[in-house]
Design brief:
about 675 residues; alpha/beta; 8-stranded parallel β-sheet; Chitobiase, domain 2; 15 strands; TIM Barrel
Length: about 675
């Protein structure tokens, strides 16, 4: 078979109508970089690549390869991007997550492309993208270059996954990185709490009460400014109205005290927003989120929506297509269209990462399996959710595997979870044959190790479960340990803190045992899987293991406290704090090379904060057991056995801090 020889010297020429478009210019720059990554340094060249625009369906491309030339015909800018990505993936070996998974690209002086015609296939979903949400790990991280470079790598990975749509961050970050996303060829849409991508009212007018009833003109001014700012870019305008922050508006404006009033206002505002946009952009595209409380209002018939709006149905943060739990309220309203409704457009806002201050995952993977995700998204697709998928991708790196799987589902030929898992392992980890099988089994075992905290199939805890429940119980212990923590009724609705902690103890014991086994299984494969293995599944198993062990020790400390064994309780709390600190250290140990400081701003699950809360509780216990003079426990550390009960002078040395006392007692126990 004849071939085209691609080298570093191959001339790439672009038709005039494409040559000046920024997404195309950037795509060509990336392709040149890809050639360098693949080691295509040979300087001879007998051919060229020609890129032109043709009348194809949106985003489509055709690559015609002859011995002396390659012609890329593309429908538009995204068509050019996807065509070049296709060459990079199939012949240069550049994977979609090369940056995020530290791919070592095979070096070749010359790349041989077999002659023939290669054509794109139509994706199963029209608009496919990520919401870069709760992006605290990306906030200050530079990958050794700059924060802008980090975001470029986010958008590049999305494009390589076949994505075309992004919500580029949250709040201020969105405005900062929307120009870069547009520059790279992506469509833009908006956070459900920021309709039309407008400035938040409370930020624009901090001195005023956030009330649409009082200040409709000011709200509309912000919306008009947002429309003008985005009129030249590819935007799917998100219509809707929530409160200041990710919560219902009636929490700030209690005059809307009935479902009828709330639904009527949302319906009125959506119609107004749509008309405002159409007056500036007649052919604009629209979507609206049926999320949280809005889903309940819509299902109840209180919200009325225009026909030409994509209805975005959200999962509950754990992958199940039902409404999310908010506090202790968990109605689990089905979040699917009743049936595929002809031309009506439906989308989904789906989470591989979620932040609910309860039991979700942020620094570890989704606690439910890819088989479960496949089932939920297949049903959603079959029910008509085919127009738009926006995936909450959080900080990318902890969630690469599920992101890769879902990108596979939105493409033209979807692999099932089992087939994809094996391909993923073989693509990204340096293993072959039986070695790959062992890594696959570890990956498959991860969701099986997660702890069920409720009766539903999706009720499995991420790393937030041992952290937020522990912190909630610490708060209640110091507030009133005889009373239940009512904020934890979503998982343990008992009438006393003691009963809640007994329930939590057994859940943590199961989690500690499960992840101890998974971690040991992963550790046996650490040489096979290499550094990426230690940075990914092995790290995440370790985070869970350490957090559950710490939470279990916390529960034991409470039991000892109840038995008036206060020094023992104090010591167990110190042991627990060390476990959560160890979880934090495991993350920091993976900050090699460009990953330096990646986990430094881990402030949402915040395992180090759990350790700090435990240390604060140690002081509370010491206050009761060693106060008000605070010298008796210290004598256990500093005095010989024959001197402990001889108190002529209370103490001969400065009082120890709680942690100094803990470390001294621990050393003494040895």
């Amino acid at each position: 078979m004849s071939e085209f020889l691609l080298t570093g010297a191959t001339a790439i020429k672009t038709a005039e109508e494409l040559a000046e478009k920024r997404p195309v210019v950037r795509a060509l720059e990336r392709f040149e970089r890809d050639l360098g990554m693949a080691g295509c340094t040979e300087t001879f060249s007998k051919g060229s690549i020609w890129i032109e625009q043709q009348a194809l369906r949106a985003e489509a491309w055709e690559i015609s390869v002859q011995p002396q030339s390659v012609t890329i015909a593309a429908a538009d800018e995204l068509g050019v991007i996807y065509a070049l990505n296709y060459i990079s993936r199939n012949w240069l070996g550049i994977t979609p997550f090369w940056f995020w998974n530290d791919q070592k690209v095979e070096k070749r002086d010359v790349v041989k492309i077999p002659c023939g015609v290669y054509k794109s296939e139509k994706p199963r979903v029209e608009f496919r993208g990520w919401f870069i949400n709760d992006e605290v790990l990306l906030r200050y991280w530079t990958a050794g270059k700059s924060n802008a470079y980090v975001w470029e790598m986010v958008f590049e990975a999305l494009l390589r996954c076949g994505g075309n749509l992004v919500i580029p961050g949250t709040d201020k970050t969105t405005k900062e990185y929307t120009p870069l996303a547009v520059d790279m060829g992506l469509w833009i849409t908006h956070h459900h709490a920021e309709p039309l991508g407008a400035e938040m009212f409370a930020r624009a007018y901090p001195q005023l009460e956030a009330s649409y009833f009082r200040y409709p003109d000011l709200y509309q001014k912000l919306w008009q400014e947002a429309i003008e700012r985005q009129k030249e870019q590819k935007t799917i305008f998100n219509l809707g109205f929530r409160g200041q922050g990710d919560r219902p508006f009636w929490e700030d404006d209690p005059s809307y005290d009935t479902e009828e009033k709330r639904g009527a206002l949302i319906s009125e505002i959506i119609e107004l927003q749509q008309n405002m946009v159409k007056s500036v952009i007649p052919d604009a595209k629209f979507c609206t989120n049926l999320y949280g409380e809005v889903m309940e209002l819509y299902r109840g018939g209180y919200i009325h929506l225009p026909k030409d709006v994509i209805l975005i149905w959200a999962d509950n943060g754990y992958g199940k297509m039902v409404s999310r739990r908010q506090g202790n309220k968990n109605p689990r309203v089905p979040a699917l269209p009743e049936q595929s409704q002809g031309s009506d457009a439906h989308g989904t806002y789906y989470h591989v990462s979620f932040y609910d201050l309860q039991a979700a995952n942020h620094i570890t993977m989704l606690p439910n399996s890819m088989e479960f995700v496949e089932k939920e998204l297949k049903e959603a697709y079959d029910r008509g959710i085919q127009k738009l998928w926006i995936i909450n991708a959080s900080n990318i790196k902890p969630h690469v595997y599920p992101l890769d799987f879902i990108a596979n589902l939105w493409g033209s030929k979807a692999m099932d979870a089992d087939t994809h898992r094996e391909q993923y392992v073989r693509t990204y980890y340096p293993c072959t044959g039986g070695q790959a099988k062992e890594l696959v089994e570890c990956l498959k075992g991860y969701p099986k190790a997660t702890v069920p905290y409720g009766p539903n199939e999706d009720d499995h805890g991420g790393e937030q479960f041992p952290n937020y429940v522990t912190r909630g119980m610490i708060h209640q212990w110091m507030l009133d340990r005889k009373t239940a923590a009512k904020g934890l009724n979503w998982c343990c609705p008992f009438d006393s803190l003691s009963k809640q902690i007994s329930w939590f103890k057994e859940a943590c014991r199961q989690g500690q045992e499960n992840f101890e086994k998974l971690y040991a299984q992963c550790e046996r494969q650490k040489e096979v899987g290499g550094q990426l293995w230690r940075d990914s599944l092995m790290l995440q198993a370790s985070i869970h293991k350490e957090c559950y062990e710490g939470a279990l020790l916390f529960c034991e400390a409470f039991e000892e406290f109840e038995k008036n064994q206060l020094m023992k309780s104090f010591m167990l709390l110190g042991n627990a704090a060390e476990c959560f600190e160890a979880a934090n250290q495991r993350m920091r140990d993976c900050e090699h090379d460009k990953w330096e400081s990646f986990y430094a701003n881990e402030c949402l699950s915040d395992v180090k904060e759990t350790a700090y809360c435990l240390k604060r509780l140690m002081g509370y216990v010491r206050n009761i057991g060693d106060g008000p003079d605070f010298f008796l426990w210290q004598r256990e550390v500093l005095c010989e056995e024959e001197d402990k009960r001889v108190i002529l002078i209370t103490n001969l040395d400065n009082h120890m801090t709680d942690w100094e006392l803990y470390e001294g007692l621990k050393e003494k126990q040895k």
